[in-house]
Structures are given as structure tokens and as C-alpha cells.
Amino acid sequence: MLIIGGGFAGLSAALYTARGMKRGIVCSAGPSRHAPSLHPHGVLTRDGTPPTEFLDMAQAELDRYDVPRLNSRVVQLTGQNTAFIATLENGETVQARKIILATGVRDVLPENIPGLREEWGRGVHHCPYCYGWEVQGGPIALYQPGLNADHVQTLLYHQKISPDLLVCSDTTPDLNAVHRQLLHDRGITLIDAPLVEVKGTASGVQLTFADGRTSERSVLYAHGERVLNADLAQQLGCEATEFSITVNPGQETSVPGVYAAGDVIQN
Ligand SMILES: Cc1cc2nc3c(=O)[nH]c(=O)nc-3n(C[C@H](O)[C@H](O)[C@H](O)COP(=O)(O)OP(=O)(O)OC[C@H]3O[C@@H](n4cnc5c(N)ncnc54)[C@H](O)[C@@H]3O)c2cc1C
User: Fold this and answer.
1) Which stretches make up the FAD/NAD(P)-binding domain (predicted)?
2) What is the predicted pLDDT for the residue at 21?
């Protein structure tokens, strides 16, 4: 079993492969998507453990088993069920009967707002489940460019974290009178002037808008586009898009013998 990607999904797959008395090898290169986050949450028994520490502990657990791990990027995948060949970046090859693709995704963030990327995982987060409990009741913000009726439920959900919700829409929101009244009644602040800068502060972020207004917030929620890190699924002809790999309930892709796990299978 060749497991490509040594993040949370890949190392879990490696543990089960070893415990299932199957021969497995992990090839991984590059940081986990989790790397920028200081204190990830929601992982039983390890709530708040920094991601690098978490992955180091996972590696130490795997040391008890016979699962070789290569620090190398897979650049090419060819072959078919029971006879796959992976080419590594140094030109070496690995042969495998089965493949697990656990190469993760990357978050493509808007480039035109200085500070947004730099604060990713610190003052800027994408997931209120991962980072929300910590800032409950405080001043929070949501970056929702092109705000329209489809986003109203998302706004109301974020208000569960705190009633003090500022929404940055960059342009005039496309909302009807009923929705505008609802957001007004709920005390949600809308700023439609473009967000032009995000600065990290001791307690979160300072947001600056094109009209000169500024606001201090404990967190800014923003969503990047999640794009697959690798096109290995496509190389093998698996059904996949730029964003995710299609699997059946057994995690198998459309190509027999090729499985996928972790963020790569999310939409
Ligand atoms: C800012 C932030 C905060 C988050 N906070 C939380 C949280 O609090 N709680 C939570 O549960 N989740 C959180 N997440 C989500 C979490 O990071 C992901 O769900 C998780 O990392 C997915 O694990 P994975 O194994 O699928 O991918 P990853 O962890 O990204 O691992 C994939 C690995 O494969 C490697 N790789 C890619 N291409 C190749 C290749 N061609 N060859 C070899 N290796 C390759 C990558 O470099 C990486 O090391 C957060 C995400 C972000 C961005």
C-alpha cells in the first residue's frame, strides 16, 4: 500500500495499514494544511495541541510499526490495480499494489488584501468550529464578499458565536428588504466599503476599509478556495475536479485499487 501524503489522513491510514498486517509505505513532502494554525481544536484528547506537535506524536506512534516513511514528493503516478508505479521528485520509483491519496488541499486566499494571508490561522480563520468557542461573545467579523440572500443563514450561524458580528461585503449587498430588516433587528453590522487591510493585533485583527474606517476584531472569518495539492488522481484517470476526488462509501475512487482520504474528498 502506497500512502501519498503524511498529514492527518495519511498517517491515520498508515497506522491502520500496519495494524492490518499489510505492507505500507508513506511518501510525503511539504507542510500540512493545518501548519499555520497555532492551536487547532476539536480533536479528542488533543484539543489545542499545536499541529506540528500532533503530527510528531503520530510519527512516534508509527515508529512502533514497520511503516517506512519517505520525505519525498510524488510527481507521477502510473499503472493499474496491483501494479502502480510512483515516481518521486528525485527520480526514484516506488511500486505498489494499492494507493491511498491523502495529499490534502491548499487554501487559495484573495491576494489583494495585505495581511489576510499572513494572519491565516492566527487572527483569520475559516472555520468557527475550529476557532469560535475561544472568542465567544467578543467582537467578530466575517469576510463575505458579494453578500446575498444565500449567505443569510451563514451570518445568523456566526451570530451564535457572538451577537457582535461585523460583516464585510466589499460591495453593496444583494439583499431584499426583509433580509436587511432581519440583519438590522439582529444587530449585525454591515460594511460594504472594500476591506483593504488586515493587521494582526495582540487580541485578534484590525480591519481597515477603503473609506478609512477601522475595526478591532477578535477574529476575521474568511474562506479561500480549496484546491487539491496534487493532480495525481487525474494522472491515473480517477474521477476528480480541481477541488476534490470522488470516492464511493468505501473511499475507493473510480479507478480500482486507488483510495482517497482526508480533505481531498471534501467538496
Ligand atoms: C487555518 C486552519 C485551521 C484549522 N483548524 C482546524 C482545527 O482546529 N481542527 C480541525 O479538526 N481541523 C482544522 N483545520 C483543518 C485541517 O487542517 C485539515 O482538515 C487537515 O489538515 C486535513 O488533513 P489531510 O491529511 O487531508 O491533509 P494535510 O494535513 O494537508 O496533509 C496532506 C499532506 O500531503 C502532502 N502532499 C501534498 N502533495 C503531495 C505529493 N504530491 N507527494 C507527497 N506529499 C504530498 C502535503 O504537503 C501534506 O503534508 C484547519 C485548517 C486551517 C487551514
Assistant:
1) 2-265
2) 95
3-state secondary structure (DSSP) of residue 210? coil
**pLDDT at residue 43, as a whole number:** 87
What is the predicted pLDDT for the residue at 38? 82
Helix (H/G/I), strand (E/B), else coil: 27? strand
Grouping H, G, I as helix, E, B as strand and the rest as coil, residue 116 is coil
Q: Closest ligand 1 atom, CA of 5?
A: 34
CA–centroid distance, 247 to ligand 1, in Å, is 18
Phi, psi of 128 (to 5 degrees): -65, -20
pLDDT at residue 224, as a whole number: 87
Q: Is the pTM value of this prediction over 0.85? A: yes
Sorted by where each starts, the structural domains of the chain and their CATH numbers stand as 2-107+226-265 (3.50.50.60), 110-222 (3.50.50.60)
CB 240 within 8 A of CB 253: yes
* Residues flanking ligand 1, CB < 6 Å: 4-10, 27-34, 36-37, 40-43, 73-74, 102-104, 107, 120-121, 125, 127, 130, 229-230, 262-263
E strand segments, the chain: 2-4, 25-28, 69-71, 74-80, 83-88, 93-96, 99-101, 105-108, 124-125, 140-143, 165-168, 189-191, 195-201, 204-209, 214-217, 219-221, 225-228, 258-260
Tell me which residue has cell 481597515. 208
- Find the helix packing angle between 152-161 and 177-185, rounded to 10°: 0
Residues 126-161 as b/e (b if ≥16 CB within 10 A, e otherwise) read bebebbbeebeeebbbbbbeebeeebbeebeebbeb
Amino acid, res. 59: Q
> Which parts of the chain sit beneath pLDDT 50?
none
Phi and psi dihedrals of 88, rounded to 5? -90, 165
